[in-house]
Amino acid sequence: MDKIEIRKQAISRYENSESPRAIYQSFGKSKRWFFKWLKRYRHDGENWPKDLSRKTHHTWERINKTMEQAIIDTRKKLEATLYAQIGAPNIRWNLENQGLSAVPVSTINKVLK
């Protein structure tokens, strides 16, 4: 019996007034598993027993090459200055003072690596 059939059978047994505990224990599954599929059954319509895609819903865009170069140039300028802070927060602050759009500190760290 495949996964989808087990899910369908569990829900049909629930609709026939069998207790959730007896159902998930008979399949060797957890309480969380049972109520996950019960919730999907109630809310998702026909496609409820199928696995959902694990693909991310949002793909992050790379920053453009000019911004990347501005980050590198700002870092080099700060390194040339005696006692200057050269971390990502200071680079971001300098970029904002130059009128460039704010880039997240994590992105600046990734560019520097």
Structure description:
With 113 residues, this protein is an all-alpha fold. The chain has two domains: 3-47; 65-112. It has helices at residues 3-15, 20-26, 31-43, 65-80, 88-97, 105-112. The radius of gyration is 27 Å and the shape is rod-shaped. The model has no long low-confidence stretch (mean pLDDT 91).
Order of helices and strands: HHHHHH
On the 0 to 100 scale, the average pLDDT is 91
Gross geometry: rod-shaped
Stretches with pLDDT under 50, minimum 5 residues: none
Give the domain tally. 2
What about the largest sheet?
A: none
Separation of the first and last Cα atoms: 49 Å
Radius of gyration: 27 Å
Determine the strand fraction and express it as a percent band: under 5%
Helical stretch count?
6
Helix proportion range:
55-70%
- Structural class by sheet pairing and helices: mainly alpha
User: Count the strands?
Assistant: 0
Quick recap:
The chain has helices spanning 3-15, 20-26, 31-43, 65-80, 88-97, 105-112. By secondary structure, it is mainly α. The relative contact order is 0.09.
